[in-house]
Write a structure and sequence with these properties.
- By secondary structure, this protein is α+β, with helices and mostly antiparallel strands.
- It has 18 helices and 14 strands.
- The protein has a single domain, classed as Roll (2,3-Dihydroxybiphenyl 1,2-Dioxygenase, domain 1).
- Helices cover about 45% and strands about 15% of the residues.
- The chain has a five-stranded mixed sheet with strand order 3-4-5-2-8. It has a three-stranded mixed sheet with strand order 7-10-11. Strands 1-6 form a two-stranded antiparallel ribbon.
- A hairpin with a 5-residue loop joins strand 10 and strand 11.
- The radius of gyration is 23 Å and the shape is globular.
- The protein starts with a strand and ends in a 7-residue tail after the last helix.
């Protein structure tokens, strides 16, 4: 009997989701085509150096999606579906109080965590949950109405959840069951044609367009699907040249002369999509909503806890210096701040404890003599080489910036109210599975590589 393992399920799901989203949002297909063209051009120009953060096969196939759910119960079901694909919840992102503005959601990202699984297919889904319990956004009356509405809908068919549980438990599915699982899973994230209650949607939209997109409809859907590109600035230029309206900025670190770090993102603007709207008297008319867009990303080196703290301080410094300057000046200010505070090489990042890498015994290492028992010395003396660890996760400020750049309204928030407590522990309890710490995953990956080096060089251990 032919069976389909989790990583092949994951790869097939990502590919089918991409085809579905291309049918629903044709501009996404343009985005994918331009991304592929840019990647091919960068590979021709830079050769093997273009693949330092992942093979071109991986980069070209890479996608991350974004979805939104309303309740802890719905989040738990999402976790079961993605668990079938070998994807674990990693990281906690609170978007309610970011610099870009307030959004009534907290998020995690489902992704593979093992190195070999990431190499096979690194599909990720950034998943946001509505913070219904936060009184700054929802007063008691609206909270009760919203809770009742969400309790009355079903996002995922029981058959899909049963197949998901089996795939997670057994790490595979028979081919026929795998086909059924994929069909049901993709359908779960299609845009529904069911008419939307116009008044209810408008009520939630006054709080936030994101709240309306989550709680104003009886289904969920894919909000965006993101290819990875090796030169996001060139992609932005080419998309604009094709007449596609892009958001105003590229979110995240600036383009500068040093190594790419963390994550840069941009998107084309959310499109006005026709939707059926039901009035209070039951009549159905055609309307339009702007909730889905096409995002693209460029990934860099994962930063350590110290590196990430420095990144956050640099952002604050850029904000301070750019406060009374034009928006056009911000990029130059950011580049100057980066040059002041970050080393201009990958090795400098590693040596200063700012960037994550894996260590590998160098083919041309010294012959004879005793190798030093410390990672930095092994690197400097040519015993080992370092390979950067690609950043697999997200940035709350950048995610919020993308969200806000594609919203049709600012929404509202009662700042006199106290914020409801949401954290990684609360999401873990909701899903009955731990939200993993991304830093711990990168640290583990680095430590495993050092253990392999120690074994190969016959050292007791190699401290960082």
């Amino acid at each position: 009997m032919t069976t389909i393992g989790q990583w092949r399920l994951r790869a097939a799901f990502a590919a089918r989701l991409s085809r579905m989203y291309g049918r629903e949002v044709p501009a996404y297909t343009t985005l994918v085509d331009v991304s592929r063209e840019v990647n091919e051009d960068v590979l021709r120009a830079r050769g093997a150096d273009a693949e330092r953060l992942g093979s071109i096969r991986r980069v070209t196939a890479e996608r991350h999606g974004a979805i939104r759910v309303g309740t802890p119960g719905e989040l738990r079901q999402v976790a079961r579906v993605f668990g079938a694909l070998g994807m674990r919840p990693v990281g906690f992102y609170d978007l309610r109080d970011t610099a870009a503005g307030a959004l009534p959601v907290v998020s995690t990202a489902f992704r593979p965590v093992a190195e070999e699984e990431l190499a096979r297919n690194p599909f990720r889904v950034f998943t946001s949950m509505l913070t219904v319990a936060d009184p700054r956004f929802f007063d008691a009356d609206l909270r009760a109405r919203l809770t009742a509405f969400l309790a009355g809908r079903e996002l995922f068919a029981p058959e899909l959840l049963a197949l998901a549980d089996r795939a997670e438990a057994e790490w595979e599915l028979p081919a026929a069951d795998a086909e059924r699982f994929l069909d049901l899973a993709v359908r779960s994230f299609e845009l529904s044609a069911e008419p939307i209650d116009r008044d209810w949607y408008a009520t939630l939209e006054r709080v936030s367009p994101v709240a309306a997109d989550i709680g104003g409809v009886r289904s969920t859907h894919l909000n965006h699907l993101t290819p990875r590109v090796l030169d996001i600035d060139e992609l932005y230029r080419r998309m604009t040249a094709r007449g596609v309206e892009m958001i105003d900025t590229i979110q995240g670190p600036p383009r500068w002369e040093g190594p790419d770090v963390l994550l840069r993102q941009t998107s084309f603007r959310a499109l006005a999509e026709p939707r059926a709207m039901r009035a209070a008297d039951g009549t159905v008319t055609r309307g339009a909503l702007r909730v889905r867009f096409g995002e693209v990303e460029a990934r860099g080196i994962a930063l350590t806890r110290e590196g990430r703290a420095l990144y956050d301080r640099m952002l604050d410094l850029v904000d301070e210096r750019a406060a009374h300057r034009s928006a056009a000046d911000r990029g130059d200010i950011a580049r100057a701040v980066w040059a002041e505070h970050l080393p201009v090489t990958e090795q400098g990042l590693v040596e200063q404890g700012l960037g994550f890498c894996t260590y590998h015994v160098a083919p041309g290492r010294p012959r004879g003599g005793r190798p030093p028992a410390e990672a930095g010395a092994l690197l400097r003396d040519g015993w080992v080489r370092a390979e950067p660890i690609v950043y697999e996760d997200f940035l709350p400020r950048s995610a919020a910036g993308i969200f806000h750049s594609n919203l049709s309204g600012a929404g509202s928030r009662d700042s006199a109210q106290g914020a409801a407590a949401y954290d990684a522990g609360r999401l873990s309890a909701a899903m009955d599975r731990e939200v993993l710490d991304p830093f711990a995953l990168y640290e583990r990956q680095r430590e495993r590589s050092l253990a392999r080096v120690a074994l190969a060089l016959r050292l007791d251990a190699v401290p960082q």
